[in-house]
Amino acid sequence: MPSSFRLVMRSGPTAGKVFPLEKGEILIGRDLNNEVVINDPEISRRHARLYLQGNTYVLEDLGSTNGTFVGGQRLTGPYPLRIGEVITLGERVTLVFELNLPDTEATVASASVQAAQPGPVQPPVQPTAGYPQAQPAPMPVYPPPAGAGYQGQAPLPSQGAYAGQVPYVAETEPPRSQNRTVMILLIILAVILVVTCLCIGIFLWNAPLEFWCQFPIWPAGACP
């Protein structure tokens, strides 16, 4: 079958070597019977395999000792490759998955794909032990000019101005229920007074003459 893809070794024992992918299944390892032979002590005899699926190759680790990585992530199962992805075998061997184009076109295509992929996030640099971190210089503090601290300030009242004064206490209003009780009592007393006055008036109006003659207020001969 015509080769549409290839692996290019970027680092390893034969850096720059091109491996055209011309079969439906390709074995990668140190054994000479593999389609892609890499003579490196970190590579297992049967390290990984590629098999064609659809329009791309799928990469699978074959239980290697040092692992197979794509983009820095260790493979734990089959992984469909994309153009420009970097395959790492162990720690020192890296392969780039590319289209099988002329060298100039393949280089441009691989570079454009790698530029589109985000790079690894760099961890923040930790300070070296034994060297203190530089601290920001403190801001200088200048004393205020003489008399400036008292401008615009109201004078504080002296303690003697309040000596002997009784603090004001707000009077509390009596409860409304008490006012209502007092009002009712006053009304009752007024009614009793009015009734008493009426009774006395009626009695005096109807009193007989003998009753009036008991009081020494009449002139002589007024009473029989």
**Strand order across the biggest sheet?**
2-1-11-10-7-8
Give the biggest beta sheet.
Answer: 6 strands, antiparallel
- What is the CA–CA distance across the termini? 167 Å
Cα-atom Rg, whole angstroms? 57 Å
User: Quick one: CATH class of the domain at 5-116?
Assistant: Mainly Beta
- CATH topology-level fold name of the domain at 5-116: Tumour Suppressor Smad4
Q: What structural class is derived from the secondary structure elements?
A: alpha+beta
The tally of helices reads 3
Transmembrane segments: 182-205
Organism: Anaerolinea thermolimosa
Protein name: FHA domain-containing protein
Domain FHA: 26-75
Describe this structure in words.
By secondary structure, this protein is an alpha+beta fold. Among the domains are: 5-116, Tumour Suppressor Smad4 (Sandwich), CATH 2.60.200; 181-213. 22% of the residues lie in helices and 21% in strands. The strands form two sheets. Strands 2-1-11-10-7-8 form a six-stranded antiparallel β-sheet, covered by helices on one side. A five-stranded mixed β-sheet has the order 4-3-5-6-9, with no helix packed on it. The longest helix is centred in the C-terminal third of the chain and has 31 residues, at 176-206. Keywords: Membrane, Transmembrane, Transmembrane helix.
